[in-house]
Amino acid sequence: MDITDLTLTQTIKALENKQFTEAELNSAYQKRIGQVNSSLNAFLEVIDTNSGIPVGIKDIISTKGIKTTAGSKILSSYIPQYNATVIDRLIAQNVSIIGKANNDEFAMGSSGENSAYGPTKNPWDLTRVPGGSSSGSAAAVAANMCVFSLGTDTGGSIRQPASFCGVVGLKPSYGRVSRYGAMSMASSLDQIGPLTKSVADARLVLDWISGPDEYDSNCIKKRLTTNDSRFTKSLKGLRVGVPKEYFGVGLDPEVERVIKAAIKQLADLGAELAEVSLPHTEYAVATYYIIMASEVSSNLARFDAIRFGSDRGDFGAEVKRRIMLGTFSLSSGYYDAYFTKAARVRTLIKQDFEKAFEKCDVIVGPVSPTVAWKLGEKVDDPLKMYLMDVYTVPPSLAGIPGLSVPCGFADGMPVGLHLLGKYMDEDTILSVGEVYEQATKWHQEKPKL
Amino acid sequence: MASGETKVMKYEPVIGLEVHIELNTKTKMFCRCNADYFGKEPNTSTCPVCLGLPGALPFINQQAIEDCIKIGLALNCSINEKSYFERKNYFYPDLAKGFQTSQLVLPIAIGGWIEVEDAQGKLTKIRINRAHQEEDTGKLTHRDGQTFIDYNRSSVPLVEVVTEPDFTDTFQIKDYAKKLQQIFRYLDVSNADMERGDMRLEANISVRPVGQTTLPNYRVELKNINSFRFMAQAVEYEIARQIEAHEKGEKLVQETRGWNEDKRVTYVQRSKEEAHDYRYFPEPDLPILKMSATLINEMTKAVDTAKEKDPVKVAEKLVSTGMSLASGASIARNPIKLAIFNEVQKEKSVLDMDWKDFGNFIANREINEENINLVPELTKKQLSDFQSRKSGLISNSKELEALAQEVIDENPGMVDIYKSGKTTVVMALVGGVMGKSGGKADPGKVKAILERLLG
Amino acid sequence: MKLTLEQVKKVAKLAKLNLSESELAKYSEQLSKILSYIDQLNKVETSKIDPTYNVTGLSNAFSPDEIRPSLTQKAALFNAPQQDKGFFVTKGVFQEE
Q1: Residues of B in contact with A214 (CB under 8 A)
Q2: C50/B contact by beta carbon, under 8 A
Q3: Which residues, other chains included, contact A300 with Cβ-Cβ below 8 Å and sequence gap of 6+?
Q4: What's the whole-model pTM score?
Q5: I want to staple A205 with a disulfide (CB 3.0 to 4.6 A). Which of A96, A194, A334, B91 is the partner?
Q6: Is B93 an 8 Å CB contact of chain A?
Q7: How many domains does chain A have?
Q8: Is C67 at the interface with chain A, CB within 8 A?
């Protein structure tokens, strides 16, 4: 048995059964990291652990006493003096931080190439991107460098790399998990979530990290309902919405084939399919880039090289681009035409989902229009890169939860099935994911490194 | 500088005021650091939130919101049912987050008024535009070409009260500031101490020809002036400067000016061309505020109760016990003396008290204690001093005469002065006898005895 | 919409970004392209639609006025590029406070 193949739930069980010790567990992962990190560049910092359950933490999440760079040159020597809420909660569950995971600078990017510390590579094909911005978090789980990892998702940054790397990725509902300590990118959109080796693991980690927090005002008081047993082996009684807008121009035919097969599988498992419409989908990317960039421009104003960090000139090109776009959108004379306009369209996008969910319990579709692309392929055309977020951005704007579950391969690269739930209903998408996963076993496929 | 009668007749000033009040909450506006930064070592009352560290998020102080509502109600404002915070974006080293969390579109309180007196004693209603909630910045000191920053004050709650441009003279401004100060104190929401920076005034000034009803197309903002006196001087200066400019046909522009205390002139700090574009937008990290009718009722009751502590009302009540107007006002302004007086009134054993005498007695006592917990002890002492003074007066004339002779013998110089005609010097001798008697003599009687002895 | 070089310069100043001439030119072109794409939002009728700034539906998230421990002075200053006697230090600013 290779210890590093085990899921979180399996690892916990094995530790309880004394199949191996925590020290053995950590040394197995340390060894694995030693073997693969230099070719993947998934971890920026490796911590010498010998107890607890070793996990990877996106380097945008504050870890007390452990360097946290957000993938930026501006924080090249920043050592936080406090823990993010999620870190304290994980530590309470006997979790140890084994690595700080690489990411696009301040979580801005869809390929992992915007890190000041070099791109992360996709474990399935080292010439391809792992997706982003939680690039290292996804690659590390796919390559068995940790039991699970935490990422952040603002417009797809957990789900898209999870899809590209063939792991499970969950973006919880906005307000489910405290954001305190995750460096803000776009405050009204950011969520922390798990990247795991199984859907059951994602549920467990969500249970650990979610819940009210007196340090994040937007955190919902209601606790997560877990272990819903409505769906165990079959999906009978489940209504699955398929939005026609998610199968239009731009969707790679191979990816479409894999997604359609997965949807058929859901039907075979007993689910009832219904066509739904999300008519404002085509405006989501434009809406997202205005709201996100506006919030970014304000959130990154604190980087003034006085209390921490270096000069603002040390921001990378993509970060500067978004600060510029956001500053413009909020500036006098353009505020109504851009910022307020986008906030109004956001309402329509949110309403699209509310209407669609009158007809179904979950919505399914692709996470990304393509599989992982080649490194360097899109770096020179920011707009082209932005358009790759077309399916992940609308649920982010609506604040609803989204799960990426491995569902097959196109051109030899993993494809993720996107499961979207009602606001604060992670339970249903996790249950559907678990049933699907048990029936298909796609999640057991591992890259050969 | 011109300021002749005829010129003043032709133009009138239009003045609006913005007042920042630092609240006296225990903790800061958006984090639970101790808000009392006064006299603390630098950067010892800070946390990730008020230092603006990456990843930190704000959490609203409930007490501050309630205080802001109370201020609004005391100024006859209506409270917005829905209100929210916005970010005011600009860069400055004292601003940890790169934005100040403030309110623009929907402030907590809007549309109130307050009456102020002008130089002639005439009351005018000043309209209050708004009272909104925001936060303070860190403190900068400049030395040797460098700037030193202490963030202990960063994010301490501030309420900003903005008037309409309804003031026409500095007397009204002084009265307004004084009345605000009283309100903040009886509401117990701020110490409202200007020297300490608890209360800061900014004035917007322009002048227009008498008879013109529209607002001038410019205004000069007077900022960073830390006392009533200087603000009044700066406003007077500005009015004169602007009238003169008008008369010379010069064009006045929108700008921010400060006060140079040495030269006694205002000077340009920032012109319109350099004006900020603050890029206000709703603070995404904070849910909106919804003011329920229950909450507003509760706050209204609290304000009504607090109003009973208004020094003017308290003084009226004290005077009704028989004491002089001056004594009543003096006790009303001193919380310790007021507490002592109230305490004595509660005691049954002093039912036959001469309240008029006692009130004047307390008003004239020197009581430097500030600790309100010591009131029971202080009361005992004051009461016994008062009673022993009343009962212990030396009535025996022989005794007083002996003391008076002693004093005369000890001060031959003064006796000479008295005899040369400067009879007022007798009061110094009276003081001497009072001292020897331990205060237990009737000064009137002593004076008569001295006059008799000195012939 | 097209952003002129002058507009880009103004925005950079507001954002406190010191951009090189080549960066200014690049952003002028890229931002113009992105804004042109964003201008498609004008096709959406929104006159009767309220804006969404927060999706939680929460209100009055308050904390009681009770003191919690602050960071130590050492921790507060830990990452400061420049410090002196407990103060953060930066190059002089002598404008109004």
Answers
A1: 59
A2: no
A3: A106, A315, A319, A323, B98
A4: 0.88
A5: A194
A6: yes
A7: 1
A8: no
Q: What does the pLDDT look like over A41-90, one tens digit per residue?
A: 999 999 999 999 999 999 999 999 999 999 999 999 999 999 999 999 99
A188 touches chain B (CB under 8 A): yes
Which residues are CB-neighbours of A411 under 8 A, at least 6 positions away?
Answer: A254, A371
With contact defined as beta carbons under 8 Å apart, do A290 and A324 qualify?
no
- Read off the CATH number of the domain in which A229 is found: 3.90.1300.10
Q: Which residue has the higher pLDDT, B443 or A114?
A: A114
Backbone angles phi, psi at C69, to 5 degrees: -60, 145
Those residues with Cβ within 8 angstroms of residue A219's Cβ, 6 or more apart along the chain or in another chain: A175, A176, A177, A178, A179, A211, A212, A213
Active site residue A149: no
Nearest C-alpha neighbor of C89 from the set A81, A74, A304: A304
- Does A449 fall in a domain? no
Q: Which residues of C touch A398 (CB under 8 A)?
A: 55
pLDDT of residue C97: 37
Q: Residue B101's closest chain A neighbor by CA?
A: A298
Contacts of B93 in chain A (CB under 8 A): 304, 306
pLDDT tens by residue, A213-259 = 999 999 999 888 766 667 888 999 999 999 999 998 899 999 999 99
Domains and CATH numbers, chain B: 5-290 (no CATH), 311-391 (no CATH), 397-454 (1.10.10)
> Chain B to chain C, count of Cβ pairs less than 8 Å apart?
127
Minimum distance, in Å, between the CA of residue C29 and any CA atom of chain B: 23
Boundaries of domain holding A378: 3-444
Contacts of C57 (CB under 8 A, 6+ apart): none
DSSP code of residue A340: I
- Tell me, yes or no, if A217 is annotated catalytic: no
Q: What is the dihedral of CA C20, C24, C26, C28, to 10 degrees?
A: 180
Q: Point out the catalytic residue in the list A110, A133, A134, A431.
A: A133
Residues of B in contact with C7 (CB under 8 A): none
All structural domains of chain C, each given as residue ranges with its CATH number in brackets, are 5-43 (1.10.20)
Active site residue A133: yes
